[in-house]
Design goal:
The structure is a single chain. Helix 4 crosses helix 5, helix 7 crosses helix 8 and helix 8 packs across helix 9. The protein contains ten helices and no strands. With about 300 residues, the chain is mainly α. The N and C termini lie far apart (about 75 Å). It has one domain. InterPro entries: PER33/POM33_regulator. One of its GO terms (cellular component) is endoplasmic reticulum.
C-alpha cells in the first residue's frame, strides 16, 4: 500500500486499496486477492450429500472402481461378485436419472405406454438391461462378460465431467494445479469422447454377435439339463438381444456401424474367399430372421 500525507492531518490516501471511511482510514488491502473464497471440502461434501446428482456421480465412480477389480479378477467367484457390483452401480446411476425425470414431470410411467417409453429412452434401456442382468446373475446365471463394457465407458465420461465441475474446484490444492488438471480433463473429454462412444457402440455389436453364438448352445443346455443356472443364463442372453435391438432401432449410429461392418465382411469374402459367399449370405439370412423375431 502506497500512501502520502494529505492535508497534514496524518491521514493516508491509498492507491487501489479501498475507500476511505468517515475518519479517513482505509478499508481494504492492496494485497487482497481477487479470487473468490472457496468453501472447505468437508462443507461442500455435506452439501453434495443432499443432492441426487452426487449419488449419480458416486455410482459411476464406483462402477469404474469395481470394473478395474473385475478386469484384475481371475477366480470365477471374484469375477461374478465384481460384475454384480458393476451392475448394481449402473442400476443406481440410471435409476437416479429416471427418478429426476419423473420428479420434474419430464417422464410419467404408465403401463399402457411403458413399452413405447423403453423404445425411446436410452436411459430406460440401460436401466432395464442392468436390472435384468443383475437379477439373472443373482439367481444363478452365468456372467455374460463384455455386456458391461459400453456402460462403463459412459460412466467414465460422466464421472470425469462431474468431478471437473463439482469436486475439483473445492479440493485444497494450488490454483495452478487445479487449472492444469481441469484443462487435461476437458481436453480428454473433448478429444476422446467421440472415439470412446464409437468403442462403446462397437462393444455392443461384438457382444451381440457373441450372444447370437451362445443362444443355440444355451437352448440345448436348457433342454438337456433344466436348472437355475442354464435357465437364467438363457434369460440374460435373451435380455441382451432385446436390448441390442432396442439400441439398433433407436440409434442411427448403431445402424450405420452395423451396415459398415457388414459391407466390410462382404468385401473381404468376395475378394479373398468368393467360394464362401453363398454360405455368408445364408448366415446373413438366418441372422436377419433371428433378429426380426426378437420382440422389442
Amino acid at each position: 500500500m502506497s500512501g502520502r500525507s494529505g492535508n497534514g492531518s496524518g491521514n493516508h490516501n491509498t492507491n487501489n486499496a479501498g475507500a476511505k471511511n468517515g475518519n479517513g482510514k482505509t478499508n481494504g488491502n492492496s494485497n487482497r486477492s481477487n479470487q473468490r473464497p472457496v468453501a472447505p471440502l468437508s462443507a461442500v461434501f455435506r452439501t453434495k450429500l443432499k443432492q441426487p446428482q452426487f449419488y449419480w456421480f458416486l455410482g459411476h465412480t464406483l462402477c469404474l472402481y469395481y470394473y478395474i477389480q473385475y478386469m484384475l479378477s481371475f477366480r470365477e467367484q471374484s469375477v461374478k461378485t465384481n460384475y454384480r457390483k458393476i451392475m448394481l452401480c449402473i442400476v443406481i446411476s440410471y435409476g437416479i436419472v429416471l427418478h429426476q425425470y419423473v420428479k420434474s414431470k419430464q417422464l410419467t410411467f404408465q403401463w399402457s405406454n411403458l413399452k413405447q417409453q423403453i423404445r425411446q429412452l436410452d436411459n430406460l434401456q440401460y436401466f432395464t438391461l442392468s436390472i435384468a442382468l443383475l437379477t439373472c446373475s443373482l439367481l444363478g446365471g452365468k456372467t455374460l462378460t463384455q455386456t458391461e463394457s459400453s456402460m462403463v465407458i459412459y460412466s467414465l465420461f460422466h464421472a470425469l465431467n462431474y468431478f471437473k465441475e463439482n469436486v475439483l474446484p473445492f479440493i485444497p490444492m494450488s490454483s495452478i494445479l487445479k487449472g492444469s488438471l481441469s484443462n487435461k480433463i476437458s481436453y480428454f473429454i473433448a478429444n476422446f469422447n467421440g472415439s470412446f462412444f464409437n468403442a462403446a457402440v462397437i462393444s455392443e455389436l461384438v457382444t451381440m454377435c457373441k450372444v447370437c453364438l451362445m443362444l443355440p448352445i444355451q437352448l440345448v443346455s436348457v433342454l438337456v439339463s433344466f436348472n437355475a443356472k442354464s435357465l437364467f443364463t438363457l434369460l440374460s442372453i435373451w435380455a441382451y438381444a432385446i436390448f441390442f435391438k432396442l439400441r439398433y432401432n433407436q440409434s442411427e449410429q448403431m445402424r450405420l456401424l452395423c451396415n459398415q461392418n457388414q459391407q466390410v465382411i462382404e468385401n473381404f469374402i468376395s475378394t479373398r474367399f468368393p467360394m464362401l459367399m453363398d454360405k455368408w449370405l445364408g448366415i446373413k439370412h438366418l441372422a436377419k430372421v433371428f433378429f426380426d423375431r426378437i420382440l422389442a
